[in-house]
Amino acid sequence: MGVNSSKKLAAKCSFLSKDEQLIVSNSFKLASRNSEKIKEDELTKLWGSQMDPRLLQYINNYLFGWSDQKMSTADLERFAELFVFCTRGTVDEKVKVLLTSLGKSEGEGSDIPYSLVKEYVESIVCSYMKIQKLSNSKQYKSWSSRGCTTHLQNSQRLAESLTKDLASESPISRRLLETWLQGSTVLGQLLLFVFMHLYNISHKDKSTSLVSANPESDQSTTNGGDGVKERSLVPYCRGLDLIPSYPSILDLNQIVFINAHLPQQYQLEWRFLFSSEIHGESFSTLIGRIVNQGPSVLILEDRSGYIFGGFAPANWTLGPNFFGDDSCFLFTLGPRMRVFPSTGYNQHFQYLNLHQQTMPNGLAMGGQHGYCGLWIDSEYGIGHCSESCTTYTQYQQLSHTKEFHFRHMEVWGLGQPPPTPQEKGERMISKGGSVLDSNAENKAMLKMSGKVMHSEGLREPPNT
After folding, report:
1. Of 305, 341, 435, 458, which is the most buried if we count CB atoms within 10 A?
2. Bridging pattern class, strands 307-312 and 329-334
3. At a CB cut-off of 8 Å and minimum separation 6, what does 208 contact?
4. Is 328:297 a contact under the CB 8 Å cutoff?
5. Is the CB of residue 333 less than 8 Å from the CB of residue 298?
6. Residue 246: CB partners within 8 Å, gap ≥ 6?
7. Which pLDDT score, from 0 to 100, does residue 357 have?
8. DSSP string spanning 271-327?
């Protein structure tokens, strides 16, 4: 069967868009070796090296059946159906793929053990990470070239976090599967990436995807089948050009987990701001590195190995009051991956203060003074996480113990930093404003740190 024949067959699949017809027909032609049917061993040769072995078995179960229902070949319509269901399928269609992959017929009682669903999701996560490495996208290289790797334990944690809503139910009913899949947007993004890669393997080089179809080759967003928008869950890493081997506590699974929960406009790029390993253990240095840098992600590791942090959507500024907005959230990365979004109960999202006698000195996210969701004291290296926090939904204590010492901290800026006070001044002058007005923010910050601004520079305030 020539390429024109496969295109004609694909055109008969009314559920395929024109773009999908091209993708599916080319992939089918390669997998079937120009015949009208695909054999399991040929598909295994083509796709086996691209994914986790468990996912390959699930795919074969869907295409060729299992046990006494097993068929020796699969036709183009079944092959096309798998692509559409996994890249833009309805909830019912994705449930069908999941059940069939796990050896369940839709006509049977659909209850399945939680452990099987978790393993299914784990196979998708592990395949996603493997394909990231194989495709060697610009985003992936920006991290891997700095020593960032993937660890199986964290792939397992990511899979567990994606299935946590099912953990208390075993066996799991079809209705519960539908509800879960309806809200599993991150799993949907992983599936989309994996199957776009598999169905776009090049005829010339079976180890890589077509550049034009690789979801994360050099772009943060591309079109999948039928115009489905794909977002890169791996941000581009900036700011480590002069640090060839960065001692980060993060691996790619953890980066994807955090990034997937950020507002979309902040998922494209992370800028390195601070690391205690590089910049030393100083709260003043921390402040100097994160103030006026826009939205940021903070990550800490305590001495018990617990890894946790928060997303701060507002620009960090010194002051006596809480600030921020309800897109703020806290998270844990180890020993479990969890996200705690805002409850709307209060507005205690971010707080930063220093050199004050009447107010606490440190950095806070959530809760109230003395009972914060996350508190980093100005006496660098210590902090606390309250046992409860009304600022965040389903909050659980982040650190191993309420009062903790941390051995590592790092901060990443998100997106482009806001204009500096000097840049603001230049803009105001160009619009007829005054230099004094443009320096108002600088004055306020300096006053908080016990200094004043004079025309010729910074001085300590005079004794009175």
Report:
1. 341
2. antiparallel
3. 134, 135, 201, 202, 214
4. no
5. no
6. 146, 147, 148, 240, 272, 275, 278
7. 84
8. EEEEEHHHH-S-HHHHHHHHBTS-SEEEEEEETTS-EEEEEE-SPB---SS-B--TT
The Cα 132–Cα 139 span in angstroms is 9
Question: Between the CA of residue 230 and those of 87, 226, 388, what are the distances in Å?
Answer: 10, 11, 37
The 10 Å CB-count burial string (b at 16+, else e) for 93-116 is bbbbbbbbbbbbeeeeebebeeeb
Cα dihedral: 85, 56, 221, 136 (round 10): -170
Q: How far is Cα 335 from Cα 223, in angstroms, rounded to an integer?
A: 35
CA distance 296 to 319: 18
pLDDT tens digits, one per residue of 49-90 = 999 999 999 999 999 998 888 999 999 999 999 999 999 999
Please give the single-letter amino acid code of residue 401.
T
Q: Which amino acid is at 184?
A: S
Query: What's the pTM?
Result: 0.85
- The CA distance from 281 to 279, in Å, is 7
The count of other CB atoms within 10 Å of the CB of residue 405 is: 12
Which residues make Cβ contacts (< 8 Å) with residue 252, sequence separation at least 6?
129, 132, 140, 143, 148, 149, 150, 234
Residues 6+ apart with CB under 8 A from 76: 6, 9, 10, 13, 24, 25, 28, 32, 36
Beta strands in 30-124, from DSSP E residues, in sequence order: 38-39, 73-74
Residue 419, token pair as written in the block: 């204009």
What interhelical angle do 185-198 and 252-261 show, nearest 10?
Answer: 120
Question: Between 91-101 and 174-183, two packed helices, what is the crossing angle to 10 degrees?
Answer: 120
Per-residue pLDDT tens over the stretch 373-383: 999 999 999 99
Query: Helix (H, G, I), strand (E, B), or coil: what is residue 382?
Result: strand
Q: Residue 421 is encoded by which pair of tokens? A: 């006070």
pLDDT in tens, 155-210: 999 999 999 999 988 789 999 999 999 999 999 999 999 999 999 985 444 444 44
| Cα-trace Rg, the chain | 26
